[in-house]
Structures
1.
Amino acid sequence: MLQILRTRLNQGHRTTKFPLELPVLPQRFRGRPEIDGTKCPEGCRECADACPTEAIAVSGGLSLDLGKCLFCTACVDACPPGAIQYTTDYRLAVNRRKDMVLSTGDLKLAERMRDDLHRILGRALRLREVCAGSCNACDLDTNVLNTVGWDLSRFGIQFVASPRHADGLLVTGAIPRNMRHALIETYEAVPAPKVVIALGACAISGGPFAGSPEVNNGLGDLLPVDLYIPGCPPHPVTILDGLLRLIGKMPSAGDAR
Amino acid sequence: MRTPVNGCDWLTVRQGERADIDSVPRVEPDAFAEHVAAARGRGERLAQLFGRRMPDGGVVLHAFVADDREGTMKVCRSELRRSDGRPLQYPSVTGRWPAAQAFEREIAEQYGVHPIGHPWLKPLRYHATDDGSPAPWGAFDPNKPIPGDYPFYRVDGDEVHEVAVGPVHAGIIEPGHFRFQCHGEEVLHLEIALGYQHRGAEPLLLHRNATRSAIVAETLAGDASVGHALAYCTALESLAGAAVGVRAHAIRGIALELERLANHVGDLGALCNDVAFLPGASFLGRLRGEFLNLTLEICGNRFGRNLLRPGGVLFDIPPEMADGLHSRLDRLQPEVVRVLDMMFEQSSVLARFEGTGVLSQEQSEEIGLVGPVARASGCMRDVRHDFPHGVFQFSHLPVATETTGDVYARAAVRWLEVQRSMEFLLELLGNLPSGRTFAAPGPLCPNAVAFGLSETWRGEAMHVAFTDDAGKLAFVKAKDPSLHNWFGLALALRGVPISDFPLCNKSFNLSYAGHDL
């Protein structure tokens, strides 16, 4: 017992002050990309060809689809003029699929859920997580929010065991054929009104597995999605930032920096 | 290039070498099972057994048998050809060597090949065969909703009841289905049905975009990204005959051990959680993140994505970063040791760990377990020690073993490995070799086969790669250690109270995605 208390004292207080204090991520962390099509040499499509998931389009001006982006460095390495550069801005969550196509550095970050939903779900959001064809990384970095480092429950957000106790689903993975049925059944078991969160490149677009005949290329039109959180996998703070935006608990949401 | 030794029907290959495909000895299909199973009698281990479809519609079986003492892999093949419209078939290896059970189910499911005499032939991942031909258990029905819709083995009796769990679990974990046959609390039998995570990953390892293939290798099992990337890179580099610089090797080793530390520390915390020792769970849960953040520092991703590529690593560790990592790890080490000492001194923890979910060494050998789970049952095997490659040629890590084969042993092996990995990292970060970090590997040798092995935190990952006449990558076979070990979990549950299932499951902590591919 004494040993436990000593170790407890030694451990100290470890919960981040987020969102009152914002984290500083390492220089090599790859967050929101900044795109500057004016740097593109005439007719160049090196970045688009290098991209492993065809997330980059060059016709009609340079653009990048964050829903497909795996945050690797193939495009950056392929572009000496530096038309695509990663920043360390971890804020990536958006409400609509089309908001993920970037042609500058601007990203329309997620807004609070509709008022009628917010009245019911905004103060205590309970989610059931459904892993459907993820590699487990998205799931692990969601689970991290439950550690003392992040202490998710202080925001009124909790992951629950049963869909019947939940207000919505958080879905990871490319949705294999073999998980499709279980996912839909789980969704139907959640009482209305409910929200759906698509977490990670796989759930948004199929990620590295897009195009495989065994997967649905992410949620697509399978379920109505309220929040998209891009990344492969997204950093825990990216996930938390998205969840807090959805329930309107992100202070001064528009200008967090 | 290796050629077979005269008079021996196995080709011997070492890690890092490649072999001419035609030099792999052929064994007649009828003699294949006996030939492969004879290796068991010599104390060797079945590392891989897979099929490959040939242009003429036949299937070539390849067996890779590991001689852990010699650090060599022995390879043979057998060509199955269609005759008189009969399905492809051969006498099963599994009847003679249970370690082959999942491999032969995979072969049957992928190509419709019949391993005659397989004692428990059933689907592995629930998908259609490559040419639409029926599998031995019948044609695949894509409209059947879930893999768990299958006649599970049943125990009947007045007081026997059945418990079904999954695919959607209570925690934030991957999907799978567990079917227990219980008498009261006691589990008489557990059958595990997987396949929910099947993404069709293997063909994507041949994607025309090389970055995509490498990322698919990293996401086969996303918590073992570095381990799988290492096996994948080693296989491709061996095909190219590329020499990777010692500095790149060292950085790969650092990433691999950080991955091991994060997962082992996380697992030990989760084990505490499963026995309601919450101080251990919360301290270790947080400490796991510290190791992930060291990896984040190196390559910008907590899971080591985008660090390893064939030819080396994409990120260097400059001296000031090495110093920073060293001092952070130096602070972490006593903290981790202190928390783990506390955990292993709690009688309430030990009482739940000891004697729970026992697997004997004999059982482990028979079903071919790998990784910490095998070492906990006294099996001496660790790729870093047995097949040293890269940085492990210069730094010899002792193999951590226990003998009791219970949850305690599986936890204690992780504890030992955590200590050794931290020491290894402190030494390496303080003394990084110089040299280049990346050089494009160059063209692959045509008509060749090579493999890459790595000791991921779960055990042996293996990638086998083949090229065609033009030196183009033609086939890659990936194996996650979980493919060996899931059966071990089912066995360990026999006679255990069902309330100890979460604890036993966590002590294995296997990958669903890595199994389902």
2.
Amino acid sequence: MQASLTDAALWHRIHFGFTITYHYLFPQLTMGLAWFLVYWKWRALRTGAEKYNRAARFWARIFGLNFAVGVVTGIPMEFQFGTNWAGFSKYSGAVIGQTLAMEGMFAFFLESAFIGAFIWGEKRLGPKGHFLAAVGVATGSWLSGLFILVTNAFMQHPVGYAVAADGTLALSNVGAFLLNPWALVQFAHNQCAALVTGAFVITAMGAFYTLRGVHSEQARVYLNTGTLVGLVASLLVAFPTGDSQAKMVGRYQPVTLASMEGLFHGTRLADVSVIGQPNVSQQRLENPISLPGALSFLAYGTFKSYVRGLDEFSKNDWPDNIELIYYAFHIMITLGTIFILIMAWANWKRWRGRLESSAGLLWILMLAFPFPYIANSLGWMTTELGRQPWLVYGLFRTASGYSQVVSAGDTIFTLIGFVGLYFVLGLLFLYLTGREINKGPDAPYPLAKRQEVAV
Amino acid sequence: MITLWYAILAFMLTTYIVLDGRNFGVGILHWIVARNQNERRQVIAAIGPLWSWHEVWLVATGGVMLMAFPRLMSASFSGCYLALFLILWCVLLRGISIEVGGHLSDPLWQEFWDAVFVFSNLLLAVLFGAALGNIARGVPLTSQGTFYLPFFTNFGIRGSVGLLDWYTVPVALFCVLILTAHGANYLAMKTEGAVHERSVRLARRLWLATIPAFVIITVLTWFVRPQLLQGMAVRPVSWLTLVVSAVSIYALVSGLRHERERLALLGSSFLLFGLLMTGAAALFPVVLYSTTDNSLQLTAADCAAPAFSLAIAIAWWIPALILAFAYLYIIQRHYGGKASVSKDSQELY
């Protein structure tokens, strides 16, 4: 294997991997937050309680910052299909272009029309109009997720296609393509995971204000809604969505499942290792602590089911970084389990009416919010590394997909550009978000005075 | 079907340039028409809540290009690799400057983001202008149907050309000029007070300046790509778009003369639309013209997706377009009239 500064295929992969991972830090929160905003606007309409409007306004500001960064980091993603993955675009554009174009036409027009009105336009739209704008933004952001996941599902488990005379892909069955079983399961799993991120961030904010002893009415709203949604979403991420996702991998990508679990040799009663390190050169798992038979049961429904090991597949078809897949998958699972435990504990305390006085738990809730981001990123790493060495599973190899005319040097150059820009963007985002958090949901709006003087 | 998708792609790209082009123009004029911080906030507020809706036209155009003409997307985007990333970075910076400029009332902060706003918009107008110039002039296609453009070579228009040459640079400058004039029309309609007065005056001067510039560009284009005029002569659609352009000129002139700002903006929008669509109709069926060997050029049919994909896509594209304009209509109902800093500030509810 070649690994150097001139290996263009590698750098194109890192280019896409870096820009997409960074990008997805923002949409996962906006997709998670969007329905909280809709819920609060709806509660405000129904009950007339000002605290829900206030919560929606505060979170709309956080949402707006996330949305802006999500948009500007998202635009380069689509164009990279042409710039960095010309081979792939040419090969499968007729199929995956459908959903990418649908995303622009159905989701982005909707989202972008209402986002400005939602964030700036409460006065202009009135309460009902403002509620509907929130619904528009939330629907748009989830539609966008759906189209992207249908696109990704095609790359994981291609259906509804035909091979055209020139060897490229054509669409043959649009229903099968859009209703790809992989897409439905992955969408459910991914959107629940986005809700987990949203719930943890909202809960953390509630915990922060409570521990500081400020904005107590608002903090209670955040803790109540956040912990409830957090528990439900964390449970749904694991079962049934995560479970179905794993079964799907076992069925259509058995070599990926073997990599995820570090299963080098096929067996009945296959174990799930709780702790362990894959040693690829020796083809064994170091220091394993295992649950016997669990993998057979989880993947295929009975303890006696046979799970195929890596040794049953040609090394040519092995994912090219088994260790990374293994770690990514296992840490994701561990974090997901911890999320359920934390949220169950928080809900129990809340039910007993003691959440706001449990300082230790509030500290945990406040510090827990980065971990759903980590879990989401690791889940996507498992998915995308697990798909290797294929770009379109079983049909088209990653090595044939990158732009032949673009050198490794040009790719590294633009990658460095993105790293620099995104670093500054990240600082800017954290600074402005920190300001909003510091100002808090109850603060008078400081520019108001200046504006009155000015106008 | 291929012809229809070519028309749709041209329509979408043109719509993007007409809509976002006026934001480029506003950005270029920002320092000229707005002299103090309050006036500058007014200009940013005038861009309004829909600038990201305008930007979506670019993203949607990219998606449609990938779907309908995968080979065109793969050849042209990888061939203009560095220039495309320059565009993407400018789009990124422009978006950020609009979003965060108003977040702090600190004057230095706002001046800094104003500067980012001005230069990213200026560079975007230049880059899109140069891109249009490159489409007209052609690219150095190889026998694999790919190319890789450097920024410039010997500034010639044949053989191994670069992104910039003696033809594409004037086209880029012309693009800056006409989009600035277009932006001035928009500001005249959307603002009040001193910004309004300056925009009205500038719009008249800028549109006067476009007349000789347009003549020069036409002559240059005639010389660089004579096939364009032949294409125009044989393709009746381009007569229609020329009529649209002519009517738009009339609307533009009468709008400017009688201070009917909405009419002037409509005129300049449809003028740009008519000119770009005329160009697209005249270029058809060639999508990538070769500067090295005529036999290497790529036509729409060479690049198109299979017929079934294209037919399916029509079925969802039309309703999607209707929905997109329905959203626009809903939002416009709430945002008619002059921009207002007090009503449209993020800090006020």
